[in-house]
Amino acid sequence: MSTDKHWEKWGKSSPYYGVVRLPEFRETGLSADARQHFFQSGELYVSGMFNVIHRHLNPAFRADRATDFGCGVGRLIMPLSRRARSAVGIDVSPSMLEEAARNVTQEGIGNIEFVRSDDGLTNLHGMFDLINSYIVFQHIPVERGMKLAEALLSHLSPNGIAVLHFTYDCNATRFAPTINWTRDHFAPAHWLANLARGRPVFEPTMQMNAYNVNRLLTLFRHCGIEKLHAEFTDHGAHGIQFFLLKAGAAE
After folding, report:
1. How many domains does the chain have?
2. What digits encode the pLDDT tens for the residues 109-132?
3. Rg for the chain (alpha carbons), in Å?
4. Minimal CA–CA distance to 235: which of 156, 142, 136, 144?
5. What residues are paired with 133 via a beta bridge?
6. Are 87 and 111 in contact (CB under 8 A)?
7. Beta bridge partners of 4
8. What percent of the chain is helix, strand and coil (3-state, nearest 5)?
9. What CA–CA distance (Å, rounded) separates 184 from 233?
């Protein structure tokens, strides 16, 4: 898949900027201040996520086993690991996973496993009390992303919680799939688009894809979700973060 190749290019050339697009994260070797800022933002995200879960879904929720889909360099899986017995980071980019492993070793964390993603999530085993994915699905073409979301939710334990983020409006038009295809398959078009936006000419593509909310809700019901809480997000594109509680096991 072309998006996988592009993500691996980000992993090799600018892994932190590929995760959070701020100028201070563009270089592979982050300054001490930039590194602190980067990982502190992950801690703030996870802390806020648990606050929302406790407030709206389950005040007593605790995660025994957690996973982060699209873990990148480990920004979110590391704070998740501090709140769970074990954690699994999953990403499609080998270079991202290698950088994440280095970060985990540097922090002395011993309860995280990293696995490479594929369309069937065949390397992800077992069930999880908590599944997270943030600012990831937006970079995956919709039909592929819907199948991945379904596969991911099949690993959610009864009474478990999934926190999944999707973009529903990224200024996409009905021509967006054609534009994405052209930039993916005709390099000069992508180079010109980068120049027009004031970006480095050979910077890899980072697709933005808008998901249909009705289709997502139908998928959640199909996957056994019995309760949800949703919050709007805006990070240059309009999105929704879904907090999903799966029904308990039948007695």
Report:
1. 1
2. 999 999 999 999 999 999 999 999
3. 18
4. 136
5. 164
6. yes
7. none
8. 45, 20, 35
9. 27
Domain-located, residue 191: no
Residue 182 lies in a domain: no
Report residue 109 as tokens.
């964390």
In a domain, 188, yes or no: no
Structure tokens at 170: 């990224």
By three-state DSSP, how is residue 49 classified? helix
The CATH number assigned to the domain holding 80 equals 3.40.50.150
Q: Which secondary structure element, helix H or strand E, spans residue 125, and what is its range?
A: none
Q: Is residue 237 part of a domain?
A: yes
3-state SS record for 148-194: HHHHHHCCEEEEEEEEEEEEEECCCCCCHHHHHHHHHHCHHHHHHHH
At 189-237, the pLDDT tens digits run 544 554 555 555 445 666 889 999 999 999 999 999 999 999 999 987 8
183: its two tokens? 């930039």
Structural domain span for residue 229? 2-172+208-246
Tokens of 106: 């540097």
Token pair in block for residue 128: 């999880």
Residues ≥6 apart with Cβ < 8 Å to 41? 20, 75
Strand partners, 161: 130, 245
What token pair was written down for 211?
A: 């998901």
**Alpha carbons 26 and 13: distance in angstroms, whole number:** 9
Residue in 120, 134, 141, 235 with CA at minimum distance from that of residue 184: 141
Distance set, CA 180 to CA 41, 136, 212 (Å): 30, 17, 18
